[in-house]
Amino acid sequence: MKQAFHITSVEGLSEVSDYLISIRDRGDVVAFYGPMGAGKTTLIKNLCHRMGVTDEVNSPTFAIVNEYVTDEGESVYHFDFYRIKKLEEAYDIGYENYFYSGNLCLIEWPELIEPLLPERYVRVDIALGETDDERIIIVTDDEA
Ligand SMILES: Nc1ncnc2c1ncn2[C@@H]1O[C@H](COP(=O)(O)OP(=O)(O)O)[C@@H](O)[C@H]1O
Ligand SMILES: [Mg+2]
């Protein structure tokens, strides 16, 4: 299934977040694709806040993965694979313990660990629009 959003402001991301929350049962891994500055981190922040995360949400810089907890006590994992040089680094952090934990995993730069993505995941593509605040966001989840 494919759902497209035309967002004209950062606030507009809430519509995408709410959609992602509504399809939460379709998989634990959400992969965010888009160039630097597209808005992957910004969307993940919005999504986490709408899920009741009160921790500060920021791209993990040193650790590859950050853990947040929602107000219902559910863990959410936020990955940024931008700096990864080989897949072994993902093995080293025990990526599968996160991906198959049953907790939500939000992934920036999934293209760098594509072979490790589970069979079923939700794909989010973010593209820049005509103006600075505009984005085209496409959510795809292939349920066979
Ligand atoms: N509609 C929008 N959606 C997402 N980001 C937006 C939007 N409009 C402006 N921005 C800005 O674009 C930048 C996106 O940066 P960031 O989320 O760090 O991108 P990425 O993680 O993809 O590199 C932020 O400064 C954000 O405020
Ligand atoms: Mg980012």
Entry keywords:
single chain, 144 residues, alpha/beta, Rossmann fold, seven-stranded mixed β-sheet, 4 helices, 7 strands, 28% strand, globular, binds adenosine-5'-diphosphate, binds magnesium ion
Short description:
With 144 residues, the protein is α/β, with parallel strands linked by helices.
SSE layout:
Layout: E1 2-7, H1 13-22, E2 29-33, H2 40-50, E3 65-69, E4 75-80, H3 87-92, H4 95-99, E5 104-108, E6 122-128, E7 135-141
Parallel strand pairs: 2-5, 2-6, 4-5
Antiparallel strand pairs: 1-7, 3-4, 6-7
Helix pairs in contact: 1-2
Magnesium ion is lined by residues 40-41, 59, 108.
What does this structure look like?
This protein is an alpha/beta fold and 144 residues long. It has a single domain, classed as P-loop containing nucleotide triphosphate hydrolases (Rossmann fold, 3-Layer(aba) Sandwich). It is built from 4 helices and 7 strands. A 7-stranded mixed beta sheet has the order 1-7-6-2-5-4-3, with helices on one face. α1 packs across α2. The longest helix is centred in the first third of the chain and has 11 residues. The radius of gyration is 14 Å and the shape is globular. The structure holds adenosine-5'-diphosphate and magnesium ion.
Q: Output the number of helix runs.
A: 4
Q: Kindly name the structural category.
A: alpha/beta
Compute the CA-based radius of gyration.
14 Å
Shape: globular
Outline the biggest β-sheet.
Answer: 7 strands, mixed
CATH C-level name = Alpha Beta
Q: Give unreliable regions as ranges.
A: none
Beta-strand share of residues: 25-35%
The SSE order reads EHEHEEHHEEE
The number of strands is 7
Instruction: Please state the second-level CATH architecture.
Output: 3-Layer(aba) Sandwich
Associated small molecules? adenosine-5'-diphosphate, magnesium ion
The CATH homologous superfamily is called: P-loop containing nucleotide triphosphate hydrolases
CATH topology: Rossmann fold
**Helix coverage percent:** 10-25%
Mean pLDDT: 95
Distance between the termini: 10 Å
Adjacency order of strands in the biggest sheet? 1-7-6-2-5-4-3
Please, how many domains? 1
